[in-house]
Amino acid sequence: MRVKGGTVTRRRHKKIINMVKGQWGTRGRLFRRSNEAMMKSYSYAYRDRRNRRRDLRRLWIARINAASRANGLSYSQLIHGLKIANVQLDRKVMADIAARDQVAFASLADVAKQALA
User: Fold this and answer.
1) Which pLDDT belongs to residue 5?
2) Does the 6-116 domain belong in CATH 1.10.1900.20?
3) What does the pLDDT average to over 79-101?
4) CB contact at 8 A, 91 and 57
5) Alpha-carbon distances, residue 106 vs 16, 45, 80 (angstroms)
6) 31-63 pLDDT per residue, tens
7) What does the pLDDT average to over 2-8?
8) Other C-beta atoms within 10 Å of 33: how many?
9) CB contact at 8 A, 81 and 111
10) What's the chain's average pLDDT?
11) How far apart are CA 37 and CA 27, in angstroms?
């Protein structure tokens, strides 16, 4: 007697179709298209979790650059000056200081200027 896997297969198919519910056309209805869409979306999610770090770093650098130019330094001069002065702040924290507290960032820029002089 052969074993028919109807309920197991339906449960597996239903799980994948529910994952991509709301997608356009057959991607949200038919199992094969849903499975393709799900695998593609997981690969995009994996890739973009890494790209998010890249994008955020670019954003932090842009914010730091704008704030450092307002204090008379370029981004590279600021980073170089802080490195010479042995100030160890990462770009995330510096961007936050630049956005929220201009006075504190101005003091950081002064430290960098003194180190460069």
Assistant:
1) 82
2) yes
3) 94
4) yes
5) 54, 39, 16
6) 999 999 999 999 999 999 999 999 999 999 999
7) 85
8) 16
9) yes
10) 94
11) 6
Q: What would the mean pLDDT of 86-111 be, rounded to a whole number?
A: 94
DSSP 9-68: HHHHHHHHHHHTTT-SGGGGTSHHHHHHHHHHHHHHHHHHHHHHHHHHHHHHHHHHHHHH
What residue segments make up the domains of the chain, in order of their start? 6-116
In the block, which residue shows the tokens 């704030």?
67
Query: How far, in Å, CA of 70 to CA of 102, rounded?
Result: 10
**Is-contact 67 98, C-beta < 8 A?**
yes
Q: Encoding tokens for residue 94?
A: 């510096």
